[in-house]
Amino acid sequence: MSLKNSIKDEAHCLGFALTGITKPEPPPHWQAYEHWLTMGRHGSMDYLNDPRRVDPRLVMPECCSILMLAMSYPGPISSAQSTSLRMAGRVAAYAWGRDYHLVLPERMKLLTSFIETQVGRSVPHRWYTDTGPLLERGLAQRAGLGWIGKNTCLIHPKTGSYFLLAEILLGIELEPDTPFSADRCGTCTRCITACPTGCILPDRTLDARRCLSYLTIENKNEIPTDLRPKLGNRIFGCDTCQEVCPWNRFANQEHDPDFNPRAGVPNPDLVAELALKPQEFNRKFKDNPVLRSKRRGYLRNVAVALGNSGDPAAFQALERAVQDIEPLVREHAVWARDQIRGPNR
Ligand code: B12
Ligand code: SF4
Ligand code: SF4
Question: Does residue 21 sit in the same domain as residue 126?
């Protein structure tokens, strides 16, 4: 078996659903990324403004090949989106289990050791999953993992889009795979119609400043008041543009067990979440992606979701949160309380 095929086989054994090789050249459509930055559509994510993102050789000059990898997580269609709770929140499916920033590097470490054993010497390498200055979707498309849909997600015809990307930059030559050149979106526009804030743009990018994933995770400050009602009961991330995608309906639902939903994470009781003390929050979300939003970001979102419920049963919990130790939580709790009782009483 060729080195490339044995690496791919090992990657599958380690839980990667998709694999592909590409060259360390600027990804296709990198101009779209530069235009996106110029328009300020990245919001406060200043780390994205990094010239290395358009050229992987600036990240690792001795890189000869990039091994692109994808690992599946359970899609919201497959399990726990239904709940009998009166006021339940909704957490994006990628964040139901163990944090992928922990899971994927562990597997890439094992894969790199395997590669070095096969080659018989140490191989210069770097691995990333969301953590490096690379345009992962563009590189994955060129490595043959799928196409970039109108919702801007990378989609594979059999695996759908509920997966996370990672890559190992390698100092060895491997034959590149054929890019995934087809566009399987066709005339479909479901994601554009379903997006609650209308932030999906016609050039396969989106205005992150209006995306609920950005507003509930990356944004560390106040959520603009006109967008708060759009959150509905989403308290961490948003899956809407993937949930409506027909390619996810028939996708293979196998996923890595590390991403199995943890009890109380996918659809938590909003009133209970708003009462989480700092230590309780840290304990509940240990090794889970929600931890990265910190208690103040998470409770900010929970308060907005309770306000959006319009349910008087949320009133007392919000009254308590108006006294929270975090100013960010207090401000959103005041807004949410006013959604329920009206502002002037
Ligand atoms: C910043 C960021 C975000 C931002 C902005 C997202 C965006 N669409 O730009 C926010 C916070 C909103 C976000 C949200 C989410 N994210 Co995010 N995010 C990133 C990050 C760190 C950078 C993306 C980026 O550079 N955006 C700028 C745009 C311009 O670049 P791009 O997304 O790569 O888009 C390409 C297309 O626009 C394409 N293009 C432009 N014009 C054209 C024209 C044609 C014809 C074609 C084919 C392509 C094309 O070129 C661009 C450059 O290659 C990546 C990791 C990484 N390092 O790449 C993860 C990443 C994209 N996110 C990921 C995930 C899982 C999510 C969420 C699903 C999480 C959630 N459930 O809430 C949502 C999905 C929202 C969505 N529809 O994109 C995964 C995506 C996996 C996949 N299957 O695609 C990634 C790859 C992380 C990872 N390692 O797995 N994310
Ligand atoms: S993640 Fe939600 S808000 Fe963001 S583009 Fe998709 S549907 Fe719209
Ligand atoms: S919902 Fe339709 S248009 Fe949007 S990404 Fe999926 S197939 Fe493409």
Answer: yes
